[in-house]
Design a protein that fits this description.
alpha+beta; six-stranded antiparallel β-sheet; two-stranded antiparallel sheet; 8 strands
Amino acid sequence: MPFSISTSLIRSLNALPHNALVIDSQGIILFTNDSWKEYNNHYGLSPHADWTGADALELFGQVMSGPSQITALKEALHHILRGESLISSSEFILQTAAKGNRRFRVDAFPLIHENPAADQAIILSLQDVGPVITSQPVRTIQPLRLHQKNPQPLVPICASCKSIRNSSEEWVTIERFLLQQLSLQFTHDICPDCIRELYPKYAGALKW
């Protein structure tokens, strides 16, 4: 049964504080909330005023900086559709018309529907995490040595939220710090312990 967007669901999605894009299991865009439209206009992600009816992966593929990124996004969505993940969060480089190349975090999670016979749908949301730094030198990871004459400098980390203070005296997340220092790419999942704590009603479906 096709997934339909009810009036009450539209009101709920438009009331969300973050931008939301709803796609079906084939990647076709079913709905974009008001925040998404403003986000799209602000960054110039697509010339389409309303993405509804278009192929989301095709549109993202036009603004992503490389084919490996769209492949990673497809895999993340497949994990959700197969029930292997409840949420996916990854960072991608998007080429925007208004703001140039920027890093965005793309969050994806299933849209729960009261009709179990309906097709699955996924909510996507983008968040700007900063410009792409092209002049940053590539750092290599050195093997650990037990007896080093010159000890490594201490890294200030918050005892509460675990943010790290970088050389610019900015407090950033661990992921952002490692991305800046080591050019690492991250993809987020959720561990079994956190699923049991945050989503206890889904804990019985765990396969590990």
